[in-house]
Predict the structure of ATP-dependent DNA helicase.
Amino acid sequence: MLRREAQHPKVDIDFTLRRVFGKQSFRPLQREVISAAIDGHDVFLQASTSFGKSLCFQLPAVVSNGVTLVISPLLALMTDQVSALEAIGVAVATINSTTGLPERRKIMDDLFSGHPKTRLLYVTPELCQTEAFRRNLQIIHSQGQLIRVAIDEAHCISEWGHDFRPAYKELSWFRLMLKNPPVPMSALTATATPRVRADIIKLLGFDTGTLKIFNTPSARPNIHYEVRYLTDFASDPTMPEDFQVDDLLSWLKAIQDRRIARLGSDAVSRLPPMSGIIYVPLRVVCDQLAGALSSSGRGIQAVAYHAGLSTTDRNRIQAMWTSTKPPPTPVDRGGGEGETVPTAFSIIVATNAFGMGIDNPHVRFVVHWSPPRSFEGLVQESGRAGRDGCAAVSLVYYNTQERDRVLDRLGRDAENSNNRPGGIMNNSNSRNREDAARLKKQNHKARLESFQKVIRYCETTIRCRHEMIKEYFGDLELEMMGSQAAPVPQPSTTLRTSPCDFACDFCKEGRQALSTRKRKMVAESAVEDWMELSMVPIMRAMFPAQFRGAGSMYGPQCQECDY
Ligand SMILES: Nc1ncnc2c1ncn2[C@@H]1O[C@H](COP(=O)(O)OP(=O)(O)OP(=O)(O)O)[C@@H](O)[C@H]1O
């Protein structure tokens, strides 16, 4: 496998980092991952959101002769990275549904030339399934010019993963068909559970003897994780209820007050507004909540972002968002008469269409308006915060009614896809029906299990939330697999007595205070009748194993919470 070594006699990766990528130094572990790739190893990198995983295949590609194929699941992710690389002068190309025929021909002519100028080619996993593209790759490989395949968001390979994508499964083709010598591969993800990790390694045909594994802690040390228990129920899930809007406004006010107390109001008024993202479950809630916040008279500029907007609008909002710092434009106080207050907060209210790959360094908080559908989604989405390495907050609003609504939605999704011919396997033409049905069932089971972890995470009052995140993704197991782990930054004080250095509500408030806060959440019994009537029979029929012998529909009695 280590055939490439000779082609990189002495590459100064520090020089390339500064000169090409404009970065001063490597983050902990990046150098090791990059060196392993340059040495021709297969690489598995599981690193937290915002670690800088892209650099770990981009830099090796830039210093090598030949082309690195990058497989990415989202067009938006791909175009972002391609534009960023073009801007720094790297020879990069992409072939996707928006690439015209003349452009495709030009790219392929270069790749077939025997000495391609293109260093990175971004494609979708679906393109890699086509016979024509596979033939082209075989030609490039036979010319010795396909030097690496990098698989971004590699968790999409596994049906046990939250974003399972059938076309990712077909990536096993690379190791099976591109031989003599095999093409080295990199698999990168922030959110793989031990089961998903095992699938990635097996499916991509990694040799565990020579594979280089790297990881960083899954929970981000600079994010304060917090759950906020709601004391009331929403009567209409499509409307943001006043009690929750008020709670959010008072939370934001407390942030602003602390800021003013620390820096003084003059200094704060000259600062750019604080950026945040609020994730909501429905498009209609995006519009309603953005409107409610903007007209609250509290200096909030809020915009809605969801898949129902036109591409132009979405691009405009994203561009505004990723521009380094939004200007402190005054906003309408909402009281008429043109009265304005300085903008204190710039907020995007979004569905999960605004997620993977969003890279605005200045996001200070991510709020989940209701519990996210998957644990991986929670970690991915909250990982949009604090990407500059400074302190940030992840806040989840939780009550039992929302918990049950999500369970209901998961149940209905499962039911709908069971009834839909093809379902999630629509795109696969090489698998028989039985296999497709099995994968579909497994994926639904995985989704339910993942949401149960969200419930545990939110309902616990006796555990550090950072620890729970690390446990879910099996950080310890990764180290036992021989992973080279990044050193965890230790606070300078020796008084550290909490696993996360008090960066979660459990460690900060303590068990007693957290339990008291949670007890104020409206009693579960208020919804039990509704549950019995609507949910339980459906869930019991769909997931019999989850109910067997358990007193509760959420599995056996939870040992980790006092709910
Ligand atoms: N060594 C470095 N020094 C400074 N900035 C860096 C370095 N490496 C990466 N970055 C920056 O960190 C940011 C995050 O990088 P990237 O998008 O690759 O993260 P990621 O690990 O893929 O995160 P996610 O999984 O959340 O998408 C980018 O803005 C990137 O330019």
